[in-house]
Design a protein that fits this description.
The complex is a heterodimer of chains A (284) and B (344). Chain A has 284 residues and is mainly α. Chain A has a domain of 164 residues: MetI-like (MetI-like fold, Orthogonal Bundle). In chain A, 74% of the residues lie in helices and 2% in strands. In chain A, strands 1-2 form a two-stranded antiparallel ribbon. In chain A, strand 1 and strand 2 form a beta hairpin. In chain A, helix 3 crosses helix 7. With 344 residues, chain B is α/β, with parallel strands linked by helices. Chain B has 2 domains: 165 residues, D-Maltodextrin-Binding Protein, domain 2, CATH 3.40.190; 144 residues, D-Maltodextrin-Binding Protein, domain 2 (3-Layer(aba) Sandwich). The N and C termini of chain B lie far apart (71 Å). The chains are: A mainly alpha (284), B alpha/beta (344).
Chain lengths: 284, 344
């Protein structure tokens, strides 16, 4: 009797979530799909059409897509290269230092994302803090703001914690015994890293990569603020279709295509995962 | 016992909800351009009438249009420009206003009434007018600035700011090519598009309201700039100068309108009436630096402002200016061209 009652409560408890996801995920998604496959007709009303999707394969838009993918991959790689050693350093520290460093890593996230991105405009501007410093030490000023480099800096800065935290969790789970065993069997430090630490931290790498790649490929704020509207990314294209040109049909088609790309990239990641559970390295 | 408690709590809850409703005073949703009013004027209106104002801003006519059209918020007073008003009238989004009922109706300059976008002045009350031109830094720009062509001069690579707005950017290209800024000719549009794509590597950024701050801070040397912004920004940085190029420019009139979806049309009219008072109009125009279509407010301004050619260009210059008109379905071609320019 008791188990049945608890099952009933469990069923009841599911309803808020089901309601929530229908209202805010399923219905909007259905709307986007509907928009993406229709075109308004002169007489009013809508007709089925695949023209929105076909339009995306014009060279202009493919270039936008290519640029977004390249920038997102670059940002992800930089995050990995910077984040991995950082996570390893944090793992090896004593408990107090470790917690302090993790806190410092998360601390900037307490400040609004937009504000943090704006502050980079102050740092990178022609008359900005960085250039004043360069001038002070006698170097020629650089114009970094409103370039691809600025967008990349913004992405790496904003998304780096999403790389370090999963890496940290999976690295901290590697038992000392395994490393010691490898050393006892004659492995040098490089071998230990290559054959023990790296494979065991793979789940963290994969989670971190997806967690950085997804927001990086879809961002529009960073490229709008730090890129000056010069290098349009896929997020900006969608934003423009929805907010300024008002072509919701084309905008929806682009959104769907972007979702497909993200799904494909996640699928690739989970295939290379060789059946390992992603959750193992997942912080959330 | 528990049931009683529940009932009491429920009763209290409903009671507070109802009380909240009945006490709620009228809130007027005003949707205006960024930096386009002296905000103390809003406080004074609230004090005088007891009507609360919820003030929101937009950066381009197109942004505003989409938001009003999709109807998320029910705005009561908005401030679109000429061509956008024509479009909104055509699409039946605006409410008729009896502008003769304005207490200071006769103060409005007849030059700004009954223009092409609202021929009978049934929907709109002119709020500000102005032009756009080139704002430049005298210390950085050594060539004479008298033509839009300077925005294509490779010498100023990465020092040029353009407006992030489809009609304004295309207008500059059309003017340089000698076409109408309302061109609905596909070849002309194609040429304008190519010209802007060719310019893109020289452009530092496509900006909204932050353009003038960047010019004041010396981040860029040349910018497309609205006349009123030029007036205010020159006070912050005396190195800046403003010119209307010889090819002419766009003359625009921004007007107060009431959307059909407004739920407080009477209060909205009161607000428009308030803004049209000469002393209030004067405060606004002094604060934002554009030109007022309110003659009595104009007369209240100090003579040096009245004679400032940036805000009030001579008739000779005004004759070279063109007003935007609603493009109808051809706008889609503009939007496509703009997406291609930005996507390059």
């Amino acid at each position: 009797m008791r188990t049945r009652a608890s099952r009933q409560t469990r069923n009841l408890l599911q309803y808020p979530y089901i309601l929530w996801s229908t209202l805010f995920i399923v219905i909007p998604l259905a709307l986007i799909i509907w928009y993406s496959f229709t075109q308004p007709v002169q007489t009013g009303g809508f007709q089925f059409s695949t023209s929105n999707y076909r339009r995306f394969f014009e060279p202009v838009y493919l270039r936008v897509m290519g640029r977004s993918l390249i920038l997102a991959i670059e940002a992800t790689l930089i995050c990995l290269i910077v984040g991995y050693p950082a996570a390893m350093i944090i793992v090896r520290l004593g408990l107090r230092w470790r917690n302090t460093l993790l806190l410092l890593l998360v601390l900037p996230m307490w400040i609004n994302f937009l504000l943090r991105t704006y502050s980079w405009m102050v740092l990178l501007g022609r008359q900005g803090v960085l250039n004043q410093f360069l001038e002070w030490i006698g170097l020629p000023p650089q114009s970094i703001l409103y370039s691809r480099a600025a967008v990349l800096i913004g992405m790496v800065y904003n998304f780096l914690p999403f790389m370090i935290l999963p890496l940290y969790t999976s690295l901290s789970r590697i038992g000392k015994e395994q490393i010691e065993a490898a050393e006892d069997l004659g492995a040098n430090r490089f071998d230990v890293f290559r054959r023990i630490i790296l494979p065991l931290s793979l789940p963290g790498i994969l989670t971190g990569t997806t967690m950085v790649f997804m927001p990086a490929v879809s961002t529009f704020v960073i490229s709008a603020l730090l890129g000056g509207g010069q290098d349009m990314l896929i997020g900006n294209l969608i934003e423009q279709q929805f907010l300024s040109t008002g072509d919701w049909h084309f905008g929806s088609a682009v959104s769907i295509l972007m979702m497909v790309i993200i799904l494909i990239s996640m699928a690739i990641v989970s295939v290379t995962d060789k059946g390992r559970s992603l959750e193992e390295g997942n912080l959330w | 016992m528990k049931k009683v408690l529940k009932l009491v709590l429920m009763g209290l809850f409903i009671f507070t909800l109802l009380v909240g409703c009945s006490k709620k005073s009228v809130v007027l949703n005003v949707y205006n351009w960024g930096d386009y009013i002296d905000e103390t004027v809003l406080k004074d209106f609230e004090k005088e009438t007891g009507i609360k104002i919820n003030y929101e801003t937009f950066a381009t006519n197109e942004d505003m249009y989409i938001k009003v059209k999709q109807g998320g918020t029910k705005y009561d007073v908005i401030v679109p420009s000429d061509y956008m008003i024509a479009r909104m009238i055509r699409e039946g989004l605006l409410e008729k206003i009896d502008i003769r009922k304005l207490k200071n109706y006769e103060a409005l300059d007849k030059r700004f009434l009954g223009l092409q976008f609202d021929p009978k002045s049934e929907y709109s009350v002119p709020y500000m007018w102005g032009t756009f031109g080139i704002l430049y830094n005298k210390k950085k720009v050594t060539d004479p600035v008298d033509s839009w062509a300077i925005l294509w001069n490779p010498k100023y690579k990465k020092q040029i700011l353009m407006m992030d707005s489809v009609r304004d950017c295309l207008a500059v290209a059309f003017l340089r090519l000698g076409f109408s800024i309302n061109s609905t000719n596909k070849d002309e549009l194609q040429k304008a598009k190519e010209l802007l794509i060719q310019q893109k590597p020289l452009v530092l950024a496509y900006v909204g309201d932050n353009g003038k701050d960047m010019m004041a801070a010396g981040e860029a040397s040349l910018a497309m700039c609205w006349s009123g912004d030029a007036v205010t920004v020159r006070k912050q940085n005396p190195d800046l100068a403003y010119v209307i190029p010889k090819e002419g420019t766009n003359l625009w009139v921004d007007s107060l309108v009431i959307p059909k979806t407004s739920e407080h049309k009477e209060e909205a009219f009161r607000f428009i009436d308030f803004l049209n008072r000469p002393e209030i109009a004067k405060r606004n125009v002094e604060f934002i630096g554009y030109a007022t279509p309110n003659r009595k407010a104009f007369e209240l301004l100090p003579p040096e402002v009245q004679k400032d050619p940036v805000a009030y260009p001579s008739n000779e210059i005004l004759q070279r200016c063109q007003v935007y008109i609603d493009l109808g379905p051809f706008l889609e071609e503009y939007n496509k061209a703009w997406t291609e320019i930005k996507g390059q």
